[in-house]
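Re-run with default settings, no changes from the original entry. Doing this only to confirm the output is reproducible before filing.
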Amino acid sequence: MNADPSTPDAAPVDALSSGHLELLRLLEQHPDYSQRQLSTALGISLGKTHYLLKALLTKGWVKAKNFQRSDKKLRYLYVLTPTGVRHRVELTQSFLTRKEQEYESLKAEILQLRNEVAARAGDSGS
C-alpha cells in the first residue's frame, strides 16, 4: 500500500472522501483551529487529522498561512483555496447522493421486513 496521503489508494476512497469533506467543512468554519482543535472537533486522532490535513495541503485544496499569537507562538491559519472550495462542493454532492441511495435502500428493506412481520402475524393468527 502506498504511504503517500495524496494518493487515492492510501486508504479506502469513502473513508478518505468523508474525512476530507468533514475537515474541509470544519476548516471553512474555523480556519484558525489548531490541529489538536480540529482533531477534537472531528472526533479523530491527532495523527489522522495531520494525515488528512497533509493530503489536503498536498492537493492544493488548503493553504496554510502563518500568524503570530500574542504569546509569540507560531500558528497556522488554514484557508481553503478556490480548488478546495470546488472539491468540497463536489464531495458534498457525492456524499449526499450516496446517503440518498442508502436511505432509499433502507426504506425498501424496512418495507420488506414489515411485510414479512405482517405475513407471519397473519399466519400465526389463523
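The chain has one domain: 8-124. Residues 8-124 form a domain with the Arc Repressor Mutant, subunit A fold (CATH 1.10.10.10).
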